[in-house]
Amino acid sequence: MQVQNKFNQNTKIIGVIGHPIKHSFSPLMHNISFELSGLNYLYLPFDVPPALLKDSLKGMVALGIKGFNVTIPLKEKVLPLLKDVSEEANIIGAVNTIVNEEGTLKGYNTDVYGVVETLLPFKDELSNSKVSIIGAGGAARSVIYALIRNFNVAQISIINRTEQIAESLKDYFSTKMLFNEIKSFPLVPPDLIEVFRDSKLIVNTTSMGMFPEVDDSATTIKESFMKGQIVFDVIYNPIKTKLLKLAESQGATIVTGLKMFVEQGAKSYELWTGEQMPKEKVMKALESYLTS
Predict the structure, then answer these.
(1) What pLDDT is stored for residue 292 in this prediction?
(2) Which residues are tagged catalytic?
(3) Is 67 annotated as belonging to a binding site?
(4) 245 — phi, psi (to 5°)?
(5) Name one GO molecular function term (predicted).
(6) Annotated binding residue at 99?
(7) Is residue 286 part of a domain?
(8) I want to staple 252 with a disulfide (CB 3.0 to 4.6 A). Which of 229, 256, 257, 286 is the partner?
């Protein structure tokens, strides 16, 4: 009896490293993409605690893994372990995509590309505008970099539970990108109504509202939002978070995290394979999965 298997001796392995890793939808997205494109690749999740990060990179090279994504909490930790890092990853201080080029691991940050492609339809509106960013982690860094480099914003407010972290991020980008129009605020929603209402764009870069904590939100004060605003949440599960529902009810234009997720994934896909991801088909497949 002949057994048919789509994987064989020529199958190239791609993966994602993080800790924990079960929450990641990257394996689903990329394996759908490889299937649709007919590419002989397989994408696997690898749970790598921070203490084993250095060894895992050696293992990736030794096993000939073609490339991999990096997720929480390893995005910042992996940077000093790489000899070759792209400009945006170096400035942001975080890597989310690594390509194995004949034993040399090169780091990129495709989250920036995801942010840029997602906000591109609003480029003219965002020029010389004020922006509020909720959170001060790796995703916030990517958003700040993208806004300064690509959207000519006038001012950025960084809002975080721990204001000192927001303040240090403000100082970081002032030094790294010579952008001095940044303010920092503690996440105290009643005190932020005017800051939010003064913002053309509000971006949530935190995990507040992510499945299974779907009733969580950075603010539940409806007066924070109004018509004419753009509210973008980087969370993609659920597709429409509590924050986005609230903003939408006040007439704001909402942008879900699914577009960013697929766009950053498409850039990683291109770096690994040299091919274009079938983005529209992948988006529809993920939408169907996440809403079923």
Answers:
(1) 81
(2) 75
(3) no
(4) -60, -40
(5) NADP binding
(6) no
(7) no
(8) 229
* 81 lies in the same domain as 117: no
Location of structure tokens 């001095």: 180
The pLDDT, as a whole number, for residue 5 is: 59
- Please indicate if the annotation marks 18 as binding a ligand: no
pLDDT digits (tens, 9 = 90+) for 198-214: 999 999 999 999 999 99
Residue 88 to residue 108: CA distance in whole angstroms: 7
Is 135 labelled as part of a ligand binding site?
A: yes
The answer as to whether 275 is a domain residue is no
Tell me the residue range of the domain where 213 lies: 113-257
Strand partners, 13: 42
- Sorted by sequence, the CB contacts under 8 Å of residue 45 that are 6+ apart come out as 15, 16, 18, 21, 22, 24, 26, 27
The stretch 136-157 carries a mean pLDDT of: 96
Asked whether residue 234 is marked as a ligand-binding residue, the answer is yes
Question: 88, 109, 130: which is the final residue of a domain?
Answer: 109
pLDDT tens sequence across 9-54:
899 999 999 999 988 999 999 999 999 999 999 999 999 999 999 9
- pLDDT average, residue stretch 57-70: 97
Determine if the pTM surpasses 0.85.
yes
Amino acid at 78: V
**Does 218 appear as a known binding residue?**
no
Q: What pLDDT digit, counting tens, does each position of 232-272 carry?
A: 999 999 999 999 999 999 999 999 999 999 999 999 999 99
Please tell me whether residues 90 and 176 are part of one structural domain.
no
